[in-house]
Design a protein that fits this description.
The chain is of the alpha/beta class. It is built from ten helices and 13 strands. The strands form two sheets. Strands 1, 2, 3, 4, 5, 6 and 12 form a seven-stranded mixed beta sheet that branches. Strand 2, helix 2 and strand 3 form a beta-alpha-beta unit. The termini are far apart.
Length: 316
Protein backbone atom coordinates (compact mmCIF):
# COMPACT_ATOMS: atom_id res chain seq x y z
CA UNK A 1 0.00 0.00 0.00
CA UNK A 2 2.83 2.33 0.92
CA UNK A 3 4.59 1.52 -2.36
CA UNK A 4 1.48 2.45 -4.35
CA UNK A 5 1.09 5.70 -2.45
CA UNK A 6 4.78 6.51 -2.99
CA UNK A 7 4.45 5.94 -6.74
CA UNK A 8 1.36 8.18 -6.82
CA UNK A 9 3.20 11.00 -5.04
CA UNK A 10 6.16 10.71 -7.43
CA UNK A 11 3.78 10.88 -10.41
CA UNK A 12 2.08 14.01 -9.05
CA UNK A 13 5.42 15.70 -8.45
CA UNK A 14 6.54 14.86 -12.00
CA UNK A 15 3.40 16.44 -13.44
CA UNK A 16 3.86 19.58 -11.36
CA UNK A 17 7.46 19.84 -12.49
CA UNK A 18 6.50 20.24 -16.16
CA UNK A 19 3.63 22.67 -15.66
CA UNK A 20 4.39 26.25 -16.81
CA UNK A 21 4.24 29.24 -14.52
CA UNK A 22 6.34 31.26 -12.09
CA UNK A 23 8.64 28.68 -10.66
CA UNK A 24 12.14 29.17 -9.26
CA UNK A 25 15.27 27.64 -10.71
CA UNK A 26 17.69 26.23 -8.15
CA UNK A 27 20.70 27.09 -10.33
CA UNK A 28 20.42 30.79 -9.46
CA UNK A 29 23.51 32.22 -7.75
CA UNK A 30 21.21 33.75 -5.17
CA UNK A 31 19.63 31.89 -2.27
CA UNK A 32 16.18 31.74 -3.88
CA UNK A 33 15.12 29.81 -6.95
CA UNK A 34 15.24 32.06 -10.01
CA UNK A 35 12.10 33.03 -11.89
CA UNK A 36 12.19 32.42 -15.63
CA UNK A 37 11.23 35.29 -17.94
CA UNK A 38 10.92 35.07 -21.71
CA UNK A 39 11.49 37.73 -24.37
CA UNK A 40 10.98 37.64 -28.11
CA UNK A 41 11.53 40.52 -30.53
CA UNK A 42 10.53 40.79 -34.18
CA UNK A 43 14.22 40.70 -35.10
CA UNK A 44 17.67 41.05 -33.57
CA UNK A 45 18.98 42.34 -36.90
CA UNK A 46 18.26 45.83 -35.57
CA UNK A 47 20.61 46.76 -32.68
CA UNK A 48 17.73 48.73 -31.16
CA UNK A 49 16.32 45.46 -29.84
CA UNK A 50 19.65 44.41 -28.36
CA UNK A 51 19.63 47.58 -26.26
CA UNK A 52 15.96 47.11 -25.33
CA UNK A 53 16.73 43.55 -24.25
CA UNK A 54 19.69 44.80 -22.21
CA UNK A 55 17.37 47.16 -20.33
CA UNK A 56 15.09 44.26 -19.40
CA UNK A 57 17.91 41.86 -18.59
CA UNK A 58 19.69 44.23 -16.22
CA UNK A 59 16.59 44.46 -14.03
CA UNK A 60 15.90 40.72 -14.21
CA UNK A 61 19.47 39.73 -13.34
CA UNK A 62 19.59 42.28 -10.51
CA UNK A 63 16.64 40.41 -9.00
CA UNK A 64 18.47 37.08 -9.28
CA UNK A 65 16.25 35.83 -12.07
CA UNK A 66 16.78 34.57 -15.63
CA UNK A 67 15.77 35.97 -19.03
CA UNK A 68 15.44 33.63 -22.02
CA UNK A 69 15.55 35.59 -25.31
CA UNK A 70 14.42 34.50 -28.77
CA UNK A 71 14.74 35.96 -32.29
CA UNK A 72 12.05 34.97 -34.85
CA UNK A 73 13.76 36.77 -37.76
CA UNK A 74 10.64 38.71 -38.79
CA UNK A 75 8.59 35.49 -39.04
CA UNK A 76 5.37 35.56 -37.01
CA UNK A 77 4.82 31.82 -37.34
CA UNK A 78 8.27 31.22 -35.93
CA UNK A 79 7.63 33.72 -33.13
CA UNK A 80 4.43 31.92 -32.16
CA UNK A 81 6.36 28.65 -31.99
CA UNK A 82 9.05 30.27 -29.86
CA UNK A 83 6.46 31.55 -27.42
CA UNK A 84 5.03 28.04 -27.04
CA UNK A 85 8.55 26.77 -26.38
CA UNK A 86 9.12 29.45 -23.74
CA UNK A 87 5.86 28.48 -22.04
CA UNK A 88 7.06 24.88 -21.95
CA UNK A 89 10.37 26.08 -20.47
CA UNK A 90 8.37 27.39 -17.53
CA UNK A 91 8.42 31.17 -17.94
CA UNK A 92 6.12 33.16 -15.70
CA UNK A 93 6.24 36.37 -17.73
CA UNK A 94 6.76 37.16 -21.42
CA UNK A 95 8.17 40.38 -22.86
CA UNK A 96 6.69 40.51 -26.35
CA UNK A 97 7.59 42.61 -29.37
CA UNK A 98 5.38 41.14 -32.10
CA UNK A 99 6.30 40.66 -35.74
CA UNK A 100 2.66 41.06 -36.74
CA UNK A 101 0.33 42.88 -34.35
CA UNK A 102 -2.65 40.66 -35.31
CA UNK A 103 -1.16 37.27 -36.27
CA UNK A 104 0.47 36.98 -32.83
CA UNK A 105 -2.98 36.43 -31.27
CA UNK A 106 -2.77 32.59 -31.09
CA UNK A 107 0.41 32.91 -29.02
CA UNK A 108 -1.30 35.41 -26.72
CA UNK A 109 -4.15 32.92 -26.27
CA UNK A 110 -1.61 30.23 -25.38
CA UNK A 111 -0.03 32.51 -22.77
CA UNK A 112 -3.42 33.23 -21.23
CA UNK A 113 -4.27 29.52 -21.07
CA UNK A 114 -0.91 28.75 -19.44
CA UNK A 115 -1.16 31.58 -16.91
CA UNK A 116 1.81 33.46 -18.40
CA UNK A 117 1.43 37.23 -18.12
CA UNK A 118 2.54 39.33 -21.13
CA UNK A 119 4.27 42.70 -21.17
CA UNK A 120 3.99 44.21 -24.66
CA UNK A 121 7.02 46.32 -25.63
CA UNK A 122 7.80 48.85 -28.38
CA UNK A 123 4.83 48.12 -30.67
CA UNK A 124 1.30 47.26 -29.61
CA UNK A 125 -0.61 44.03 -30.27
CA UNK A 126 -4.16 44.18 -31.59
CA UNK A 127 -5.68 42.25 -28.67
CA UNK A 128 -4.71 44.65 -25.88
CA UNK A 129 -6.84 42.80 -23.35
CA UNK A 130 -4.39 39.88 -23.57
CA UNK A 131 -1.46 41.89 -22.20
CA UNK A 132 -0.80 43.29 -18.75
CA UNK A 133 0.77 46.50 -20.00
CA UNK A 134 2.06 48.14 -23.19
CA UNK A 135 5.30 50.13 -22.95
CA UNK A 136 6.41 52.08 -26.00
CA UNK A 137 7.59 55.43 -27.32
CA UNK A 138 4.90 57.96 -28.23
CA UNK A 139 5.07 56.87 -31.85
CA UNK A 140 2.41 59.29 -33.05
CA UNK A 141 4.42 62.19 -31.63
CA UNK A 142 7.62 60.77 -33.17
CA UNK A 143 6.14 61.03 -36.66
CA UNK A 144 4.51 64.36 -35.94
CA UNK A 145 7.72 66.14 -34.96
CA UNK A 146 9.44 64.92 -38.12
CA UNK A 147 6.67 66.54 -40.18
CA UNK A 148 6.85 69.79 -38.22
CA UNK A 149 10.59 70.01 -38.80
CA UNK A 150 10.13 69.29 -42.51
CA UNK A 151 7.59 72.11 -42.82
CA UNK A 152 10.08 74.54 -41.25
CA UNK A 153 12.64 73.57 -43.89
CA UNK A 154 10.43 73.38 -46.98
CA UNK A 155 7.41 75.42 -48.08
CA UNK A 156 6.22 72.49 -50.17
CA UNK A 157 7.25 68.86 -50.61
CA UNK A 158 6.56 65.60 -52.40
CA UNK A 159 6.92 62.89 -49.78
CA UNK A 160 7.65 59.17 -49.83
CA UNK A 161 6.73 57.17 -46.72
CA UNK A 162 8.42 53.82 -46.15
CA UNK A 163 6.26 52.11 -43.55
CA UNK A 164 5.33 48.62 -42.31
CA UNK A 165 1.56 48.07 -41.92
CA UNK A 166 1.88 44.95 -39.73
CA UNK A 167 3.91 46.90 -37.16
CA UNK A 168 1.72 49.35 -35.24
CA UNK A 169 4.60 51.52 -33.97
CA UNK A 170 5.51 52.41 -37.54
CA UNK A 171 1.85 52.79 -38.49
CA UNK A 172 1.34 55.37 -35.73
CA UNK A 173 4.53 57.18 -36.75
CA UNK A 174 3.23 57.47 -40.30
CA UNK A 175 -0.14 58.68 -39.03
CA UNK A 176 1.47 61.30 -36.82
CA UNK A 177 3.37 62.57 -39.84
CA UNK A 178 0.41 62.61 -42.24
CA UNK A 179 -1.94 64.18 -39.66
CA UNK A 180 0.58 67.01 -39.19
CA UNK A 181 0.46 67.89 -42.90
CA UNK A 182 -3.27 67.18 -43.37
CA UNK A 183 -5.19 70.02 -45.01
CA UNK A 184 -2.09 71.66 -46.45
CA UNK A 185 -1.92 71.05 -50.19
CA UNK A 186 1.72 72.15 -50.30
CA UNK A 187 2.71 68.82 -48.78
CA UNK A 188 1.79 65.65 -50.66
CA UNK A 189 2.49 61.99 -49.99
CA UNK A 190 3.22 60.82 -53.53
CA UNK A 191 4.14 57.21 -52.70
CA UNK A 192 4.25 54.84 -49.77
CA UNK A 193 5.47 51.28 -49.49
CA UNK A 194 6.18 48.69 -46.83
CA UNK A 195 9.90 48.29 -46.10
CA UNK A 196 9.84 45.81 -43.17
CA UNK A 197 11.82 48.14 -40.91
CA UNK A 198 15.11 46.72 -42.18
CA UNK A 199 17.93 48.40 -44.07
CA UNK A 200 18.32 45.74 -46.78
CA UNK A 201 14.59 45.63 -47.59
CA UNK A 202 14.32 49.41 -47.60
CA UNK A 203 17.25 49.74 -49.99
CA UNK A 204 15.61 47.37 -52.47
CA UNK A 205 12.26 49.17 -52.16
CA UNK A 206 13.95 52.51 -52.77
CA UNK A 207 15.71 51.13 -55.86
CA UNK A 208 12.31 50.13 -57.25
CA UNK A 209 10.87 53.57 -56.48
CA UNK A 210 13.73 55.24 -58.32
CA UNK A 211 12.99 53.11 -61.38
CA UNK A 212 9.44 54.51 -61.36
CA UNK A 213 10.79 58.06 -61.82
CA UNK A 214 8.56 59.47 -59.08
CA UNK A 215 9.18 63.13 -58.26
CA UNK A 216 9.98 63.47 -54.53
CA UNK A 217 12.16 65.48 -52.19
CA UNK A 218 11.37 64.06 -48.71
CA UNK A 219 11.57 60.54 -47.31
CA UNK A 220 10.10 59.40 -43.99
CA UNK A 221 11.52 56.07 -42.89
CA UNK A 222 9.44 54.15 -40.37
CA UNK A 223 12.63 53.67 -38.35
CA UNK A 224 16.31 54.50 -38.69
CA UNK A 225 17.31 51.33 -40.61
CA UNK A 226 14.57 52.08 -43.15
CA UNK A 227 15.81 55.63 -43.64
CA UNK A 228 19.43 54.48 -43.95
CA UNK A 229 18.45 51.82 -46.49
CA UNK A 230 16.76 54.50 -48.58
CA UNK A 231 19.88 56.66 -48.32
CA UNK A 232 22.07 53.79 -49.52
CA UNK A 233 19.92 53.34 -52.63
CA UNK A 234 19.90 57.07 -53.32
CA UNK A 235 23.68 57.27 -53.02
CA UNK A 236 24.12 54.27 -55.28
CA UNK A 237 22.00 56.04 -57.91
CA UNK A 238 23.66 59.41 -57.16
CA UNK A 239 20.22 60.86 -56.40
CA UNK A 240 20.63 61.95 -52.76
CA UNK A 241 21.20 65.65 -53.47
CA UNK A 242 18.40 67.86 -52.11
CA UNK A 243 16.44 65.02 -50.44
CA UNK A 244 15.39 65.41 -46.81
CA UNK A 245 15.58 62.05 -45.03
CA UNK A 246 13.94 61.39 -41.66
CA UNK A 247 14.26 58.32 -39.48
CA UNK A 248 12.87 57.35 -36.09
CA UNK A 249 15.02 55.76 -33.35
CA UNK A 250 18.00 58.01 -32.61
CA UNK A 251 20.37 55.11 -33.27
CA UNK A 252 24.16 55.55 -33.15
CA UNK A 253 24.40 54.65 -36.85
CA UNK A 254 21.88 57.29 -37.87
CA UNK A 255 23.45 59.95 -35.65
CA UNK A 256 26.85 59.26 -37.21
CA UNK A 257 25.40 59.74 -40.71
CA UNK A 258 23.53 62.81 -39.46
CA UNK A 259 26.82 64.24 -38.23
CA UNK A 260 28.19 63.86 -41.76
CA UNK A 261 25.19 65.73 -43.19
CA UNK A 262 23.67 62.94 -45.28
CA UNK A 263 20.33 62.73 -43.42
CA UNK A 264 18.04 65.34 -41.87
CA UNK A 265 16.69 64.18 -38.53
CA UNK A 266 15.52 61.33 -36.33
CA UNK A 267 12.90 61.15 -33.60
CA UNK A 268 14.89 59.65 -30.75
CA UNK A 269 13.75 56.71 -28.67
CA UNK A 270 15.35 55.24 -25.56
CA UNK A 271 15.17 51.44 -25.96
CA UNK A 272 17.01 50.88 -22.70
CA UNK A 273 14.43 52.98 -20.85
CA UNK A 274 11.60 51.02 -22.49
CA UNK A 275 13.24 47.76 -21.38
CA UNK A 276 13.85 48.97 -17.85
CA UNK A 277 10.28 50.26 -17.43
CA UNK A 278 8.91 47.01 -18.88
CA UNK A 279 10.88 44.88 -16.41
CA UNK A 280 9.95 47.08 -13.46
CA UNK A 281 6.30 46.86 -14.50
CA UNK A 282 6.58 43.06 -14.68
CA UNK A 283 7.91 42.83 -11.12
CA UNK A 284 5.19 45.13 -9.79
CA UNK A 285 2.58 42.88 -11.39
CA UNK A 286 4.16 39.76 -9.93
CA UNK A 287 4.12 41.43 -6.51
CA UNK A 288 0.38 41.92 -6.84
CA UNK A 289 0.61 45.69 -7.34
CA UNK A 290 -1.56 47.53 -9.88
CA UNK A 291 0.23 48.53 -13.11
CA UNK A 292 -0.59 51.04 -15.82
CA UNK A 293 -2.22 49.50 -18.88
CA UNK A 294 -0.39 51.82 -21.24
CA UNK A 295 2.92 53.62 -20.69
CA UNK A 296 4.15 56.06 -23.34
CA UNK A 297 7.64 57.58 -23.33
CA UNK A 298 8.21 60.90 -25.16
CA UNK A 299 10.33 61.27 -28.28
CA UNK A 300 12.75 64.10 -29.11
CA UNK A 301 13.87 65.17 -32.58
CA UNK A 302 17.61 65.08 -33.18
CA UNK A 303 18.96 67.17 -36.06
CA UNK A 304 22.34 68.59 -36.99
CA UNK A 305 21.41 71.68 -34.93
CA UNK A 306 21.16 69.86 -31.59
CA UNK A 307 23.30 66.78 -32.22
CA UNK A 308 25.97 68.05 -29.83
CA UNK A 309 23.52 67.48 -26.97
CA UNK A 310 23.51 63.71 -27.60
CA UNK A 311 26.04 60.93 -27.47
CA UNK A 312 26.64 59.89 -31.07
CA UNK A 313 28.07 56.46 -30.24
CA UNK A 314 25.27 55.44 -27.88
CA UNK A 315 21.51 55.45 -27.38
CA UNK A 316 19.59 57.97 -25.35
Amino acid sequence: MRTGRFILIIAILAILAILPGCRRNEKSPRQHEALLFGATYMTRNNPYFDVLNQGIEEVVVANGDILLTRDPLQDQGKQNEQILELIHEGICMLFLNPVDWEAVTPALDACKKAGVAVINVDTAVKDRDSVISIIETDNYQAGQICALDMMKRKKSANIIILDNPIQMSITYRSKGFTDAIAGNDNYRVVYRHAAAGEIEVSSKVMEEILRKNIDFDVILGGNDPTALGALAALQQAKREEGILIYGIDGSPDFKSILDMGYVTGTSAQSPKSIGRVAAETAYRHLAGEPVEKYISLPSTLITKDNLDNYEIDGWQ
